[in-house]
Amino acid sequence: MPLTKPPPPPPKPTFDEFSTPDDFNAQFKKKETTKYMSPCAVEEKQSMKCLDVNNYDKSKCEYFFLQYRECKKNWQQKRRQLRREGQL
């Protein structure tokens, strides 16, 4: 039985601009200490809606999960950069 290589993974999708508003930093600084604010609220709602529509079958919502993860990753990188620069 010859060994064969597994097929390559599918290419990572590219996403359009994320939904983080431009003035999110100003809104974040004004918020109450206990209030939770998410810059990726739209992506979060889309992924949860997809789960609801598809009877919680995660395999059908992978695109929305990837988009949400990318948004959160980009937002955290931006926050780290702003903290280093002393703007946040």
TrEMBL record:
This is Cysteine alpha-hairpin motif superfamily. Residues 1-21 are annotated as: Disordered. GO terms for cellular component: mitochondrial intermembrane space. InterPro entries: COX23, Cys_alpha_HP_mot_SF. Keywords: Disulfide bond, Mitochondrion. It is found in: Mitochondrion intermembrane space. One of its GO terms (biological process) is mitochondrial respiratory chain complex assembly. Residues 1-13 have a biased composition (Pro residues). It comes from Absidia repens. Its main location: mitochondrion. It comes from the Eukaryota. The keyword Mitochondrion applies. Required for the assembly of cytochrome c oxidase.
